[in-house]
Amino acid sequence: MQQIANTNEQTDVLPCLVIPVQGSRLILPNVTVAEIIAFQKPIDGENLPEWVLGKIEWRGTLIPIISYEGYCGQKSGVMSQEIRIAVINAPNGDKGVLRFFGMVVQGIPSLVKLEKPAIQENLNTSLIKGQKMAVTLETGHAIVPDLDVIEEELLSINWQ
Fold this sequence. Notes:
- The protein is mainly beta.
- The chain contains three helices and eleven strands; from the N terminus they run αβββββαββββββα.
- A hairpin with a 2-residue loop joins strand 10 (131-137) and strand 11 (140-145).
């Protein structure tokens, strides 16, 4: 009986990554991030929005690379030496159109196991484009990015 109770308790735990970006931290379920890789200079494209930095080759596939801050309409400052790329599983990637995209991050993400009570929506934060929710964790504040909207906008770009 005790084992069943422990198993049920564990289902309420969500492994997440707290990902540093300029001026903030993002939080995503661990399964959303395919890999964290060293930064590579993206191949520039023509007529791309400023927040799309270009594409890189990752595991034999060209994937778009974005600046999350740029997407949100914030200015990107000086990039740290800890710059990395978080390869994100596109929310609707199972449809095969855009399976992955990369997001420039400012350091090494930290793994946290969150229980439902440890995540509180921060209603005092005004959300901007690209932000789905602001949350308060035991370790501070974080933003849940709106990956669905980012994916939609990436799909609407003419990549010629």
